[in-house]
Amino acid sequence: MFLLAAKSATASHRQAEIIEVILRNGWNYFRSRIIKDAQPEQPALPLPHVLRQILIELGPTFVKLGQLLSTRPDLLSPEYIAVLETLQNNVPALPWNEIEPILQNAFGESFQSKFLTIEPVAIAAGSLAQVHRAVLKNHQTVAIKIQRPGIREIVERDLEVLEALANWFSRDKIGQAYDLPGLVEEFRYSLLGELDFHREARNTEKLRQNLSNSRFWKSGQVVVPKVYWDWTTDCILTLEWIEGIKLNQVDLPEHRKKRLATLAVQVVMQQIYLDRFFHADPHPGNFLYIGDDTQDRLALLDCGMVAMIDPRTQSILTDLLIGIVYERPKIVTQAIRELGFTRLDVDLRSIESAFDRLLRRFYTRPLTEINLAELLNEALRVPRENNIQMPGTIGLFVKTIANVEGIARQLDPLFPFVEVARPIVEQAIRLRLFGTELWQDAVQSSLYLSRLTTQFPQRFEVLLDRLERSELGINLGWRLEQEFLHTQQQGMNRLSLAILSMGSLVSGAILQQLLGQDSVSSPLIEMVSQGLLLSGIGLMSWVTIALLRSF
C-alpha cells in the first residue's frame, strides 16, 4: 500500500484514515489500484449506498462533497443523485462552553453584557456551524451562526488530500474524460466560501437588495434577513430573526396556495434569469411563509450557497430553456456544446438525435404534467453519457429549479411551471436584445470585429510562412509565390472591409433600435448610429465595386 504525495504530515495521516475507510467498505476498484499485485478492476464508483456510507464516515468535508455531487446530474446517474441527496448536515450541537470562547475572542470577555439574552442551547446545528437565538440591547431578536472550533483546519487538511487524490485518478482511466483537479478546485471554492461568513453576509445583502423590488411582486412581499455587521466576523454571522412556516407546511385555501407557488417560482426565476445571482439551496426549510390575512409574503433564509451566472452563461441558459420549451433539439444541442467541456471526441449528430427523442417523449404529455426538473435532469444525462463535463453552475441551476418546482407542486399539484416562468424568460430575452446590456454587447462586438479586421491579414501571412517552412508538418511550394501572396492579400483586405462594413451596419442598426425606446434618447447616439450606417453602406459599396472589377 502507498500514500499519495502530501504537503504535510497531518495530510499523510488523513490519507491513511481515508484508505482504511474505503477498503473497509469494499471499494474493489480502489483496492486494486493501491495494493501491489492485486488484479486490476474496471473503472467504477462504489455502489450508491456504499459511497454514501464512505462519505459519512470520512466526516464533514466529505459529506459536503457528497452534497455538491448531488447537484451534478451531468456527472452522476439519477441513482447516485437520489442517494447523495439524503446526506444531511445535522449533527449534535456542541455544548455552550465550547462555543462561548469563540464569541469571547471575537467580541471581548464582556460580550454577554451587550445582549439582553443569549440562549446557550443551539436551535440548529450542522457540520460546519450551529445557530443560537439572542436578543440585542435594542430588543431586536437575532440568529447568531457560530462556526465550529477547528473546522477550518479540518477542511483545509481534507482539501489537500482530495487534491492529491484528484491528481492521482487523473492519470487513470476513471479520470480520462473529466477534469478532476478542476472539480476539486470548484469544491474548494464552494466549501471555503461557506466558511467565510463575511462572504455569506455580502451574499445575503445582495439578495436582499435584488429581491426588495420587482415588477412581478409587490414591495415587501419577499424578505431576506438583515445583516448585523457589528456582530459579524469571518466565523460569526448575526442575522435578523424571522419567524415563519415552511412552505410545505402552510395551511391556506387552495387559491392562496396557488398564488404562493407562483410567487416562489417567480422569486427563483428572477434571480436566475434577470439578476444572474441566485440562492442555490431553496428547499422548504429555507423558504418560509410569513404572510397574514391581508397579504402572502415569503422569506428566503440561509444564503451560504449561492451561484453567480456570467452574461454568456445566462444567454446560453436562456437558449437552452427556449430549445426545451419549443422542442428545438438543435438549439438544445448547441447550448450543451457551448456550455460543456470534454477531453474526448463527441458525435454532435448523435447528441441531437438523443435530444430529439427526449423532447418528443416529454411533449406527448399535457403542459401541466411536464416536470421541468425531470426534463432538465434527463437533458443532462445526454452530456454525461457522451463524456461532456458541464460547469458546476449548471448543476446548481437544475437543482434550484428542481427544489422550487417541488415546492410549487406540493402547493399546487397541477402547477404550470412553464407558463409561470415564461414571462420572466421573455423579459430576459428583451433585455438581451433591447435592454441595458445591449450597448455593452455592441461595444464588445465592435471591438472584436475591429481586432479581427486588423489582425486577420497578418495572421494569414504568418500561417502561409509556417506552411512554407513546414512548421505545421506540411511542405508546400509555389512557382508564382509572390503573385499568390499578393492575390491573397487583396482577398484578405476585401474580406476585412466586408467584415468592418457588416459590423458598422449591425452596430448602427442596434443603436437605431435603442433610439426607438422611450428610455433612450441622445443626439450623440443618433449621430453615431447614422455615421455607422453610412460608413457601413459606403464600405459595402466599395467592396462590391472591387469585386465586380475583378471579373
From TrEMBL:
InterPro entries, per the entry: ABC1_dom (IPR004147), Kinase-like_dom_sf (IPR011009), Prot_kinase_dom (IPR000719), UbiB_kinase (IPR050154)
PROSITE patterns assigned to the protein according to its UniProt record, in alphabetical order: PROTEIN_KINASE_DOM
Transmembrane region(s): none
Stored Pfam families: ABC1
Domain Protein kinase: 96-434
UniProt GO MF annotations: ATP binding; protein kinase activity
UniProt family annotation: Belongs to the protein kinase superfamily. ADCK protein kinase family.
Annotated protein name in UniProt: ABC-1 domain-containing protein
Organism: Fischerella thermalis JSC-11
Taxonomic lineage from the root: Bacteria, Bacillati, Cyanobacteriota, Cyanophyceae, Nostocales
